[in-house]
Amino acid sequence: MSDVHDLVRERYGRIAEEGGTGPGCCAPQSACCGDAAEKSRRMGYAEAELAAAPEGANLGLGCGNPQAIAALRAGEVVVDLGSGAGFDAFLAARQVGPEGRVIGIDMTPEMLDKARANARKAGAANVSFLLGRIEDLPLPEGLADVVISNCVINLSPDKPRVFAEAFRVLKPGGRVAISDVVRIGAMPAAMTADPDGLCACISGAASPAEIEAWLAATGFAEAAVSLKPASREMIAGWAPGSGAEDFVVSAFIAARKPAA
């Protein structure tokens, strides 16, 4: 498990240092290469959202817009799993307002440095970023109203533990709103063993049935995985020529912690 964490940390550390461009991308021609704003538009972010984030927060990573299903409200506490340079965390902070709070969790020191610098530039007093793994959140139980994440859980070697940690830190009645990639077909062995495929958010994807089963086993209710077939065009650019779009698609993952 630590080998996977080390691999992901090293790749995303390079992305942070290089601003999301150049040879530090996850795979030879992965999704982080190119214009971040244009890729974010394809993921479902509105122009107003792109304009609102601090400069340097949007690295063009992710596979969708978790804000679209989070239904965030003023005063809520939000935890962002794998917060990177802070793009989704800053957008969430706008939704919850000064009376709310957003906590980003990331295991990559270079990403944390970038996110904290962005927070200082933006004067975002209701956002903070902590070092930690999403399988072992450095947070007390029952803290959050909402847990969000954008194309990060697929990178984890222990996804059931991630969902269990999300359940632990949520208040009763709290919810998860996740954008991630899911597996829709059996991958070739060469693809599942490819470290570039893992870091490009392809080979580590779980099936919708697995995700729904993990959520239910953890105690979540109303679990739903909603596929986005149109995302295959975007995914085709993550590892050109690999056929990855035949095996994974982007999806929204939603569930709620029972109130009682």
Can you describe what's shown?
By secondary structure, the protein is an alpha/beta fold. It has one domain (2-256): Rossmann fold (3-Layer(aba) Sandwich), CATH 3.40.50.150. It has 11 helices and 7 strands. A 7-stranded mixed beta sheet has the order 3-2-1-4-5-7-6, with helices on both faces. Helix 7 (159-169) links the parallel strand 4 and strand 5. The chain is globular and about 50 Å long. Residues 21-34 have low confidence and may be disordered.
State mean pLDDT (0 to 100 scale): 90
CATH class: Alpha Beta
Helix content: 25-40%
Spell the H/E element sequence. HHHHEHEHEEHEHHHEHE
Work out the number of β strands. 7
- Strand coverage percent: 15-25%
Distance between the termini: 34 Å
- CATH 4th-level superfamily: Vaccinia Virus protein VP39
> Treating each run of at least 4 consecutive H or I residues as one helix, how many helices?
11
From the 3D structure, determine the CATH topology.
Answer: Rossmann fold
Gross CATH architecture: 3-Layer(aba) Sandwich
The low-confidence parts are: 21-34
- Biggest sheet, open or closed, and with what strands and sense? 7 strands, mixed
Q: Can you tell me the overall shape? A: globular
- Which structural class fits the helix and strand makeup? alpha/beta
Radius of gyration computed on alpha carbons: 17 Å
Spatial order of the strands in the main sheet?
3-2-1-4-5-7-6
Number of domains: 1
